[in-house]
Each structure stands twice: as structure tokens, then as C-alpha cells.
Give the backbone structure.
Amino acid sequence: MSNSSSSSVRFDGRVAIVTGAGAGLGRSHALQLAARGAKVVVNDLGDPSAVVQEIKAAGGEAIGFSGSVTDAEAMARMAQETMAQWGRIDILVNNAGILRDKSFTKMSLDDFRLVVDVHLMGAVNCTKAVWDTMRAQQYGRIVFTTSSSGLFGNFGQSNYGAAKMALVGLMQTLSLEGEKANVRVNCLAPTAATQMTEGILTPEVLAQFQPERVTPGLLVLASEDAPTRAILCAGAGTFAAAHVTLTEGLYVGDRSDAAEIVATQFDQITDRHGEVVPAFGMLQSQRELANASGRR
């Protein structure tokens, strides 16, 4: 990617679908994509017409689609209607989400399933609906919305954290599978003041976390020069990257006291000096086999 601050991030001729775009982060993403030239499908569980009209009033192009991301058939129709309207789908922003926060002890299985269904399976449904189209046109940009709750944990959000970390795993694999077709897949981990965060953060803190301070990161992840397999953290105007890493580790081998060695050398095993970001999951097993072969 270019380091030039004068280069413009534009989406002229591109078609973007943004889920959960009736308010909050999704609205901000949709408005900014449209302002930079994209034709935008505004999806929301409720009525998305207000955001559609907002885009049109500013001179942009948009259509609305009301439907739940948990409804795979509805998301397939959304993709079909988008193709009928504009003939291509270039960008998918998986933004729709809900919260059902409680400690794991107090959480019902229904609330756990619901959050996983919306965040994980909702993103799967939408991505499946556009995947073959993007591969066929040899262009696609997909952004999953992950969270620090998944990356690092957060009390009372076991359901949300599990779903959000699952999206990282989905991103890691789809970025590999989409690479030859120029389909780039990334994760955005936002901190923003939305309906989901009301009552969690104080008004003073919320004032710093406006959705508009996150969206610049989304624009980059959805752009023609986007990276792939990135986990971009964004909030209050700050942008950082998170990584899933692998330490150098320690070869123990086939010993009767292997568990004792792992226990006594755990600090060495977890020492982050020399850690790497694996290019693919098999790197772990390749390294393990290399260690085993080198000590025979």
C-alpha cells in the first residue's frame, strides 16, 4: 500500500453492502463509502430508508434492504437484488450485531446461541451470498467486525467474545481461499459509541468514541489497495494492529516426564522473543515435525 498521504481512497464504480447500517457504525460506514463514490446497499433489521435518503440527499446512490443477517435466504435475495440493480458486488461490510451481556454463570444457552448466530453465522450467511460473485469477477473486499472482547476477553461477554474470535478464524481461512481471485478479507475491531454501548460507557468516554473515528480504518480495509488478513483495531482516532502469533517454543520429545518439563519450562515456552505470525495454520505442524526430525 502507498504511504503517500495525498493518495485518495475512492470507491467510484464499486458496489458495497453494509449490514446493520441503519444506525451507529454501519450508518457511518455506509455514508462514508457513498461519499467516496460507492453505490451502497443499506441493510438493517429495521427500516434502512432514513440512511438511504441521507445518502441520496448528499448526491450518492443507495438502496435499502430490510432483513436479518441470520436469514440466509434473505441475504441471498439481498445479493441477487444488488446484482440486478448494479451488476456487481465489490465490498461486503459485515457489521450487524447485538449484545446479550451476562456472566457465564447467569447466561442462558439461548442468549449464547443468539449472539453467535447473529455475529458469526450472520457474517457467514452474508459472505456466502457474495463469495462466488466476487470470485467470478476477480475482485472482492470483505470486512468482518471483530472485537477486543474476542481478541483479549471481556468479563460478561463470553458469547460475544466467542463469536468475535470465531470471525478472526473465518477471516484467516477465507483470506487464503480468496487470494487467487483478488478477494481480500480483513477484520476491524472497533471501539465506538453506538446503541450497543449505551449504558456501558460514561457520556464523557462515549464522546471520544464516535463511529466516524472508526470508519477511516474500514475505508482502508475495503479499498482497492487493501491489505489482507489484517486485524485493525480502531477507536477514538487511534489505529493499531492485532496479531495471532506463535512463539519459538521448546522441543520436549517423547519422554515419560514430558508434562513435568512443560510445567517447569512454561515461561520459556511462552517467551515472546522470536515469535512469528504464521502465514497459514499448517506452519505449526511443519515446525513441530521439523523439530522432531532434527532430534532423531
